[in-house]
Amino acid sequence: MRQAAKRVETTLSQALAQPTSGAEKLFAAMRYAALGPGKRLRPALVYACGQALGGRAFDPASCDAAAAALECIHAYSLVHDDLPAMDDDDLRRGRPTCHIQFDEASAILAGDALQTAAFELLLASSTESALKLNLLQELAVAAGGRGMVAGQAIDLDAVDKTLDLAHLERMHRLKTGALIRASARMGALLGGADCGQLQAVTRYAEVIGLAFQVQDDILDVTADTATLGKTQGADAARNKPTYVSLLGLDGAREKLDGLHGQAIDALAQLDGETRLLRQLADYIVQRSH
Ligand code: GRG
């Protein structure tokens, strides 16, 4: 993860280095959002899947644009999620949220520009054209109204409602799962995955995506504010359904164990070197922030 973080931060830093004249504040807000102290989980998945499928011939540089594009979309989603019209959060990654550090209009624009920067990064990459089109499609579908944005809409609609487990799962598959799935699939495509391998990677990513959210819900009620980098119990306090509110803490932990097992089973279908993917699955269920 450290190596992935270093690579993606270098790519993002270069991509956002030259502000458009007169739009210095916009670029400062974009850099603040994209280069803040995040875990870079999605880039790590891109590189790990690329390596698992690409084997010895794998060159991490081939994944730099995809990794940075995913982090741009992720950063934009967090900036917009924190806005007063959405979750209205003051704290993110242990620092003031983008609209508190700058102002609301700048945060909206920084999110907008980060979203399109993702596609610019992919378009400017030296990836072969047919593969590039596949990557663009993966990202566009995962990020938009058939993926993450749809999940966010369902989530906002769920406040004060009772969702059952199937509904909750569908919302998370879209809201956080779609981008995690796209990260793994884009890495696998860059590593030259065939159809069967892509299916196994997709299954792995779908279950770790859910596991990530279950652990997020557990941490929301168990970790302290300093460790979390955000307000503890924020999701529960917003009266949104969570895995903990539906299953209880022990039930959510059991669910997490089951998903971890399914991720390891999915990796058994891959013939490549899957050590890093196994470690990422372990990290997702054991993480403390
Ligand atoms: C506003 C269009 C739009 C979408 C927002 C993903 C999302 C949709 C909102 C995020 C809300 C949230 C905090 C969800 C919980 C799971 C999650 C995505 C946490 C943040 O991701 P991490 O932990 O963040 O990978 P870092 O800071 O490490 O990059």
Number of domains: 1
CATH superfamily: Farnesyl Diphosphate Synthase
| Terminal-residue CA separation | 15 Å
CA radius of gyration is: 18 Å
Helix percent reads: over 70%
Which hetero compounds are present in the coordinates? geranylgeranyl diphosphate
Catalogue the unreliable spans.
Answer: none
Mean pLDDT: 94
Note the overall shape: globular
Number of strands: 2
Order of helices and strands: HHHHEEHHHHHHHHHH
Largest sheet: 2 strands, antiparallel
Proportion of beta-strand residues: under 5%
The computed structural class is mainly alpha
For this structure, the CATH topology is Farnesyl Diphosphate Synthase
CATH architecture assignment: Orthogonal Bundle
Task: Walk across the major sheet and give the strand order.
Answer: 1-2
CATH class: Mainly Alpha
Number of helices: 14
Keywords: Isoprene biosynthesis, Magnesium, Metal-binding, Transferase
Family: Belongs to the FPP/GGPP synthase family.
InterPro entries: Isoprenoid_synthase_dom_sf (IPR008949), Polyprenyl_synt (IPR000092), Polyprenyl_synt_CS (IPR033749), Prenyl_diphosphate_synthase (IPR053378)
Cofactor: Mg(2+)
